[in-house]
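thought: user wants a sequence for this fold. calling inverse folding tool.
action: design(structure=
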């Protein structure tokens, strides 16, 4: 089952490679989509401090090493990152988005299987991450539309 633990972190690497590939086509939009992942993670950390739910591995055996006490369970940061990444990638590129969605579900599921999160931790994480990234994608699309509608000013040289 060690492959599940390693696989969860490897999925995050897959997301990084997808963002890198999308960077060459979308530049600023890819950067801002990735920044949305960071925002989702930060929100997740604040929620963890407010909720302070113990991990299931504190009371039951797990297949992975249980994180240090004070590293709370709700919501799952891996799932937040996976959900935010998948939604951001989906907004930029549908084919990569399907791959990212499958990877996000696999990463979230593995956290439950290895015993370091409850099901509601990963579901909340996926939802939180996806919503934050979706909100940022909507704002970017709206801004892009507004920029396209802006009048173009042409100055003519005198003389």
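)
observation: tool returned 159 residues.
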């Amino acid at each position: 089952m060690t492959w599940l633990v390693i696989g969860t972190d490897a999925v995050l690497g897959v997301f990084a490679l997808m963002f890198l590939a999308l960077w060459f086509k979308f530049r600023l939009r890819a950067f801002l989509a990735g920044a949305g992942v960071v925002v989702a993670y930060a929100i997740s950390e604040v929620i963890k401090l407010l909720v302070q739910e113990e991990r299931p591995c504190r009371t039951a055996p797990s297949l992975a090493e249980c994180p240090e006490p004070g590293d709370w369970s709700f919501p799952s940061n891996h799932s937040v990152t996976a959900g935010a990444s998948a939604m951001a990638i989906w907004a930029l590129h549908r084919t990569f988005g399907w791959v990212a969605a499958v990877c996000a579900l696999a990463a979230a599921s593995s956290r439950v299987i290895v015993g370091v999160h409850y099901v509601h931790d990963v579901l909340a994480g996926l939802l939180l991450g996806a919503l934050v990234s979706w909100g940022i994608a909507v704002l970017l699309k709206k801004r892009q539309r507004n920029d396209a509608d802006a009048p173009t000013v042409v100055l003519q040289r005198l003389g």
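thought: summarizing for user.
answer: Here is the designed sequence. The mean pLDDT is 85.
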